[in-house]
Each structure stands twice: as C-alpha cells, then as structure tokens.
C-alpha cells in the first residue's frame, strides 16, 4: 500500500532536511580540520590579552596531524625575533606546527624570574596551556607529540612547565636556561635536551652569580640537572661521552624520557654560537617527526 501523497511529501521533506544537516555537519568537520593560515593569534587569559605567532605545518599528508613545537623567547625577546633567531622553519615541511608565544612586557614568570610577570604573578604556565589548546582548535595537531623549546629565560619557563605539567610533553629543549621554580617529587619527564656554553657568564656550570637584568642569581647548570633528574628518579650517575664540540651527560632510567646535557667548549650564552638551531632541529626530528 502506498502512502497518501501528503504523507509522502512530508517524508521526502524530512529526508531532504536530514541530508542537508548531514552535509552541513560534514562541511563543518572538514573546515575544522583544515590547517589555519600563518599569523598572529590573540587570546584572553586571566583578563589579559595575550598573543602568539602560529606557523602551521606545510608537509602533512591529507588527513594527517602535525607535531607541535612551541618556542619561548629570551628576556626582552619578540615573536618574530625568536622565530628568526631559532631558524626552525624547515621543520614545518617535515610535519611540525611552530608556535611562538609572547611574554608580557617581553618577559616570563618562570618562578624566581623575571620582570613584570614575576612581580605581578602572571600565570604563564596556564597561558601555555591555553595556547596549546587554541592551536588544536585551529589546525590539525597530535596532542601526543608536543614539544617546548626555551632560550635563556624562556628556558626557565620551559623547565617550569616540564615540572608543573608532567607527562604532557613528548620533548623539551632548553638552551642557556635554569630551573627557577620547585620541581615536585615523582614527576614524569619528556625526553630533554639542554645546551650550555662552558663560558656562560649568566648561567654558570657549578656556581651562580647575580645577574642585574634578571634580578637574581640563576641556579647553576649542575643544580638544575640534579634537581630535575632527582625529581624524575633518573639514575644518579649520568653516562659521560664526548661529542666533537661538547661533553655529553646522559641520564637514563628516568620516569618518562631521557635527560641529556651538552656542555659546549669555549662558548657562552648565545643561541647561534652554541649551534643551537641545528642541534635542536636534529633532536626534534628524532623525537617527534620520524616514523
């Protein structure tokens, strides 16, 4: 028995409406998964307008998800300045989305350091959380392949984030930085690479000295590594080897990843003089972009 004409028309209308809803939903899903354009993005965090520079991956297969590499500038640094200095843009073609957050007044609250963010107790750990979340809304990323790269005071904040958000990063790189905040017991560390010049006059190897621009005496490299590796229950004695330009200390048995420190002969605090771009890019390719 066929349906009466009026009921048939209603059923056809219902089917058409359902198809329209499904098609619209599919369109929205496709739009949400499309990579965002590169450029500055703005967030409201704790009532304050914050900014970051987004450079999405360019080398993804259709439907693929990018690793996320967040790069933290030094004291007085800028978004474009740290993007230019770190020279990591080649990672985009290999499947990494690069993110450059801006500190308030060009500084970070990394614990005992630094500047206005420290004085006003600005929650930069939460800011980095918000940036990671906002990036994931704008472009397809893999939450299991997130990394932090920090230079100088940006490295201090990178260490703070590693300790405050254990288990949320796959990798971290600290260049000429120190741990200036508590690192609780039983944390899980990502794979960590830290680079330091043996002649660094800001972050000493064994002794600290007062740095007027930061308003503190940064913890020396030995103290930072002792605290970090103890918090992650790493083997107490690192394996020592030699690279062409550095002494390499490697702590295994950690809860989570491996901690490696490269102490570079004859160099100071600078990113470029440490060869940090090449060393960082190689480390991130190995940890995030292979396979």
Overview of this protein structure:
This protein has 291 residues and is α/β, with parallel strands linked by helices. It has 2 domains: 1-33; 39-289, 3-Layer(aba) Sandwich (Rossmann fold), CATH 3.40.50.1820. The chain has 7 helices and 10 strands. The protein has helices spanning 5-33, 79-86, 115-119, 124-138, 153-164, 221-231, 276-289, and strands at 39-45, 48-55, 66-72, 96-101, 141-151, 171-175, 191-197, 239-243, 246-251, 259-264. It has a 10-stranded mixed beta sheet, sandwiched between helices. A hairpin with a 7-residue loop joins strand 9 and strand 10. The longest helix is centred in the first third of the chain and has 29 residues, at 5-33. Mean pLDDT is 89; it is low at 1-32.
Count all strands and give the number: 10
* Percent range for β-strand residues: 15-25%
Determine the CATH superfamily of the largest domain: Alpha/Beta hydrolase fold, catalytic domain
Strand order within the widest beta sheet: 1-2-4-3-5-6-7-10-9-8
Number of domains: 2
CATH topology annotation of the largest domain: Rossmann fold
| Class computed from helices, strands and strand pairing | alpha/beta
Q: Could you report the average pLDDT, rounded to the nearest whole number? A: 89
The CATH level-2 architecture of the largest domain is identified as 3-Layer(aba) Sandwich
Global morphology: globular
Major pleated sheet: 10 strands, mixed
**CATH uppermost class of the largest domain:** Alpha Beta
Instruction: Please tally the helical runs, counting DSSP H or I stretches of 4 or more residues.
Output: 7
Residues in helix, %: 25-40%
What is Rg?
A: 23 Å
Low-pLDDT stretches are 1-32
Distance between the termini: 60 Å
Write the element-wise H/E pattern from the N-terminal end onward.
Answer: HEEEHEHHEHEEHEEEH
């Amino acid at each position: 028995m066929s349906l009466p004409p009026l009921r048939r028309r209603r059923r056809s209308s219902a089917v058409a409406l359902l198809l329209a809803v499904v098609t619209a939903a599919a369109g929205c899903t496709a739009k949400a998964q499309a990579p965002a354009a590169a450029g500055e993005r703005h967030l409201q965090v704790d009532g304050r307008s914050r900014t970051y520079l987004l450079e999405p991956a360019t080398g993804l297969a259709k439907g693929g998800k990018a690793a996320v590499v967040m790069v933290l500038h030094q004291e007085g640094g800028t978004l474009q300045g740290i993007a230019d200095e770190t020279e990591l843009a080649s990672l985009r073609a290999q499947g990494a989305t690069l993110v450059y957050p801006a500190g308030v007044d060009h500084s970070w609250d990394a614990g005992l350091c630094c500047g206005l963010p420290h004085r006003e107790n600005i929650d930069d750990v939460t800011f980095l959380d918000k940036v990671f979340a906002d990036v994931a809304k704008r472009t397809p990323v893999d939450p299991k392949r997130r990394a932090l790269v920090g230079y100088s005071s940006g490295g201090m904040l990178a260490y703070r984030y590693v300790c405050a958000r254990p288990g949320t990063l796959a990798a971290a790189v600290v260049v000429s930085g120190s741990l200036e905040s508590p690192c609780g017991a039983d944390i899980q560390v990502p794979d960590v690479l830290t680079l330091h010049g043996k002649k660094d006059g800001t972050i000493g190897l064994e002794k600290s000295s007062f740095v007027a621009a930061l308003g503190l005496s940064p913890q020396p490299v030995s103290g930072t590594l002792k605290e970090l590796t103890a918090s992650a229950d790493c083997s107490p004695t690192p394996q020592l080897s030699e690279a062409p330009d550095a002494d390499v200390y490697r702590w295994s048995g950690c809860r989570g990843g491996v901690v490696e420190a490269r102490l570079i002969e004859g160099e100071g605090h600078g990113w470029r003089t440490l060869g940090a771009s090449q060393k960082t890019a190689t480390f991130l390719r190995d940890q995030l972009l292979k396979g």
